[in-house]
Amino acid sequence: MPSRHTSLILRNAAFTGAALLSLAALPSSAQTYRVTDKWKIAGDARWDYLFDDATNHILYLTQGTQVNVIDTQTGQSKAIIGNLKGIHGVALDAIGKYGYITDGGAGAVVVFDQHTFATVTSVPTAAGPDGIAYEPVTKTIWSMNGRSKTATAIDTATNTAIATIDLPGKPEFPAADGKGTVFVNIEDKNEIVRIDAKTRTLTAAWPLPSCESPSGLAMDREHRRLFTVCDGNKMSVVDADTGKTVAVPPIGEGPDAAFFDPKRQLAFSSNGGGTLTVVHEDAPDKYTVVQNVETQKSARTLAVDTMTGRIYLAAAEFGPRPAATADNPRPRPPAIPGSFVVVVVSP
Fold first, then answer.
1. Segment 75-129, tens digit of pLDDT
2. Residue-wise over 98-115: b if at least 16 C-beta within 10 A, else e?
3. Quick one: CA dihedral 244, 248, 249, 253, positive or negative?
4. From its phi and psi, is residue 105 left (phi > 0), alpha (psi between -120 and 50) or beta?
5. What does the alpha-carbon distance between residue 51 and residue 25 come to, in Å, rounded to a whole number?
6. How many structural domains are present in the chain?
7. Alpha carbon of 38 to those of 74, 231, 294: distances in Å?
8. Could you give the residue ranges of the DSSP H alpha helices within the chain?
9. CA pair distance 128, 171, nearest whole angstrom
């Protein structure tokens, strides 16, 4: 029978071996991320979604009443798309010709030239255009109209609206599967709905039993998995063919956007509480949280450069929240002038 001292050595050796095996079992593509830069951004510190054009090294940053076009090689603004009323998201067509901006204040999708950044036209939608995505099979842009609980399809060949369909609740962010289907979160119903972009009809509405107030949505097209971020520090992973929730990895507080990087098999959640959660897809139904990167409080939306792996998040510092009034029962704290930044996170 081994002595107590020998038993302790054996137990420690076993623990060390198990720890080494655990480390060895971590996904090899699960890189470590860290904040590597913060770009000071002039102008309005109101923002919503970001969109990265990796091919042309451009970050589109929605900024209140303008889109700030940022060169990601320098961190400097190269153009402003202005004279807008209250914008939310940006999407690009597949041929590098037009870009599209949801202008919630104007009730329209604004079309711009990707080369000159000049406004080309404005396409009226139903009230409250917010999330936006390009669907490549039908070559359509889909605007999710929050206040009217509808989705508008825009033909990118003619830049005209060709359909507006009713949704069962308030849509948040959409994701296209590249095969003619668009998915979108329904925030006030805790659902994901499926839209056939060819027939422009709603084909399914799936409950999200583990998700409250779903916001950001991303997709792994190869493995047919949807990633929706929810209140309560949860990400729901959903089978895009059956609507079944297959995993619920934990994330940070206050998420508002999600992204899936197919090259690295990583899903990201940007959390307004000041973290970026990195989730590795070990298998289509198995997920491991590999990192929670400290970013900056309020950094709730993101864009990812799939070529370099860099992640961009918008953030600002805020002063005290004003007292509530009858006209404004839930006032927002004011942004501190000069504090607006893009936080750069690199692998």
1. 999 999 999 999 999 999 999 999 999 999 999 999 999 999 999 999 999 999 9
2. bbbbbbbebbbbbbbebe
3. positive
4. alpha
5. 34
6. 1
7. 12, 27, 13
8. 4-25
9. 10
Could you tell me which residues are beta bridge partners of residue 341? 40, 315
Contact indicator for 249, 235 with CB cutoff of 8 Å: yes
What mean pLDDT do residues 39-67 have? 96
For residues 103 and 146, what is the distance between their CA atoms, to the nearest angstrom?
12
Residue 302 belongs to a domain: yes
Kindly report the CATH number assigned to the domain that includes residue 261: 2.130.10.10
Q: Is residue 18 pLDDT above 50, yes or no?
A: no
pTM of the model: 0.90
10: left (phi over 0), alpha (psi -120 to 50) or beta: alpha
Tokens of 261: 């990087």
Sorted by sequence, the CB contacts under 8 Å of residue 138 that are 6+ apart come out as 153, 180, 197, 198
Domain residue limits at 217: 47-319+335-346
Q: What is the mean pLDDT of residues 277-296?
A: 97
Residue 238: closest CA among 251, 247, 229: 247
For 20, the token pair is 């080494």
Tokens of 206: 């799936």
Given a contact cutoff of 8 angstroms between Cβ atoms, the answer to whether 60 and 72 are in contact is no
